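In the current project phase, we have settled on a layout for protein records. One protein thus recorded is set out beneath this paragraph:
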Amino acid sequence: MHPAFPTDSAALAAALSEIFSVLENGGKAFDVHGAEPQPPVLRLLTLLADGTDHLAADLALANGWELAVPLPFGRALNTAINADPQSAADARAIMAGKVPGDEATGKRMTAIETLLDKATVFELAERDAIVADHFLAKLDSLDDPKPLSTFLHHTSDRTLQSGRILIEQSDIVIAVWDGESTTNIGGTGHTAMAALSAGVPVIWIDPASPDDWRIVYTPDALALKSPVGAALRDAQLQALVSDGVGLAAPDDESPHTGLATLGEEAWRDHSSAGSHAYRRVEALFGHRNWREKFGSLRQTFEAPDEVATGSGKSLLDSLDAFPGGDERITSVIGEHVLNRFAWTNAIASRLSDLFRSGMVLNFTLGPLAILVGLLYIPTTGPEYKWIFAGLELALLLAIVVNTISGQRARLHARWLETRRLAEYLRHAPGLLVLGVARPIGGWPQSVRGSWPEWYARQVVRGVGLPNVKVDGAYLRASGRLLLDHAILPQLEYHQSKSARLHRAHHAIETLAERLFALAVIMVTLYLVLFGLSEISVIAPEWVTLLAKWFTVSAVALPTIAGALAAIGYFGDFDRFADISEMTARRLEALQERTVMYLDQSDDALGYAPLAQLARQTDETTFAEIQAWQAVFGNKRTTVPA
């Protein structure tokens, strides 16, 4: 038990009870724009150290909350350490699942085990053999400071890892801390500082004066100890709950904004040929063989309720085969993560086709309207210009209607939003099995709507921690899952995409340049023919006959070239290719590191390096999303200028 833990814990218990009550009340009064709010599940995460952690756990369970424990060690070793035995014999007895000889130690052991039996326990047990040896060495040499120092070094590292899991899985961190130091790695002050640095607000309770608890939002605020009124801090805490589980209305009052638009999307099991214009351009200019250039572009979308037996079966089978795996996690990932990914991925793909093909249509109809308006010159005469003008007007009105429809339907914004959500969910299983999550302060914020981030965070929070023992075999299975179902598929996708888009950019640019050059040649040719007619080398009537066609071609060729250039600019094939190339390079590095990690023996595998690989995979995905949104973010449906 920490020396700062008060002898009389009544005041501390009252402060915790007050905080828990405010949290519960805040969970009853919040709004989710676009959906009916569901009562939030309150979950307490704790490392279950003796003292405050037990007090909080008992209170949470009494209130009907879930209890989740990211243990720094395996369960048996953790109980042995926290029961605070004074002899190696008692420690060995506890690790063997037996009652220790010392009665007080036995009571502490029973208290710990009773709480663990009621909790979801995520045991970081892969270093237990090493830590246990140092633990017993410390007890065998109570008067020797060296074994104690070595043991504390190892326990600090383990507590650091479990503390990071707690931070990433929490919306609010409660720190009962005397405020003296943040340098003790894995200690309360260090964890509080890490939480604040990750953007997670901290409720700070000084055990010397529990009634004066306050909410801290930044690391700098730890140095400030100005008192906060009870009413203000209660309001602040309720606001934190509301921000965590609630969703504010978007600024845009369009019917196609916010979370509501997701529920209103109609399911389509395949793409529409009428919305393939953009992908046809990409295929024509980006693929090498004719079959790919002119082959079918129809996409078939897997129904969400078929994912578990379809594309997601391999991943779910891998989860089922996890040594000591959690069946609940497999079920929840299948029912609440993969199916939501399938749903949003299909919607995003359809909206992408509609938006980007709409713009290609505008860029195509624009030059076509110009050409139709000119064709009366060589084909008929001024008396029939009204027919061609009518056709030109119809094409121009089609552009206006297409533009207005796209803008009103918010195709651009809806595509970006649903694609973000789909990508967040795509790689979530590889993180969930390791208890890794993006801390709330690490989620991107969008000025035009952050409901996709809110939605993804709620899905991940709903899964929670697996109830597993993380040993070498579990880490190997987790590493294979990360490699086979997150890193490699995305690596292959981005390598292929980068090569295809680079080819498309080069081909479009080359064709546009050649058409423009041809326009120059045509004008030059006309001038040469005119000059030859003037010196009677050729008949002047031939030049007069061809002059109108030369006029049309001189306008048509650069107009078509400009349209191609506009499509290339809109598609930004080269920049997207660069984004995919850089993403592929990052994924290649992660692939190499993951393979190296898996080349080790089970005994050598550690949780920290694999968790870091998972976080970096997640960060690579986020960076790619941010990059392509930066490119396409302002390319809304507009008339071609």
Summary: The chain has a mean pLDDT of 89. Residues 472-534 form the longest helix (63 residues). Strands lie at 43-45, 66-71, 120-124, 173-176, 202-205, 214-216, 468-470. The longest strand covers residues 66-71.
